[in-house]
Amino acid sequence: MPIPSPDTPIETRWEGRFITVKQQGTWEYVSRSRGIHAAVILAIDEDADGRHVILVEQYRVPLKVRCLELPAGLVGDDVSGEAAEIAAERELEEETGYRAANWRVVGEFYSSPGMVSESFTLLHATGLTKVGDGGGVDGEDITVHRVALDKIEDFVAAKRAEGCGIDVRIATLLMGGLIARP
Q1: Are residues 110 and 169 in the same domain?
Q2: Contact 73/39 with Cβ under 8 angstroms?
Q3: Which stretch of DSSP H or E encloses residue 66?
Q4: Sign of the CA dihedral running 124, 129, 134, 137
Q5: Is residue 15 domain-shared with residue 41, that is, in the same domain?
Q6: Would you say the pTM of this structure is higher than 0.85?
Q7: Are residues 12 and 68 in the same domain?
Q8: Which H or E run includes 120?
Q9: Please, which contacts does 57-65 make with residues 24 or more away whose CB atoms are closer than 8 Å?
Q10: Side-chain-facing half-sphere of 82: CA atoms under 13 Å
Q11: Which end of the chain lies in a sparser environment, N or C, as judged by fewer CB atoms within 10 Å?
Q12: What percent of the chain has pLDDT over 70?
């Protein structure tokens, strides 16, 4: 497929509340509507029992299965100009019932850049305190998992064997790059 020049017009083929289908030259792709993007949280809990990661599991309509993921949510969905850090704080508590004392922005990433222009800001959260049950809002039906980092490979393998989809961001845990001790 030929790469369109940057000045090739972009046509909107379809637009919904959350996504827009676009075409530039012969290249078709999807973007988030209204300039929103996502905040993804790598939440590490540390106590006398060791280091644990907080994961969520929820049904994903496009996959038709429950999916194991890092906690995440949309930035600027309801509040224009919202900072990723503010959205991450809100989403961590809503989805998992945890608050974090320490936040570090890791950077901006793209999940499937050949097909989707959506980016997400990855944030590392530590100093966790359990303040609620989590589970999401508006019927999200989120299951919260607190998984020992030294058992993550076995946990992911067991969830995969159950038929659970595994979000690509879980690979950061399996490779250990972001969770290595400072």
Answers
A1: yes
A2: yes
A3: strand 65-69
A4: negative
A5: no
A6: yes
A7: no
A8: strand 119-130
A9: 57/142, 57/143, 57/145, 57/159, 57/164, 58/136, 58/140, 58/141, 58/142, 58/143, 59/141, 60/165, 63/165, 65/163, 65/164, 65/165
A10: 23
A11: C
A12: 96
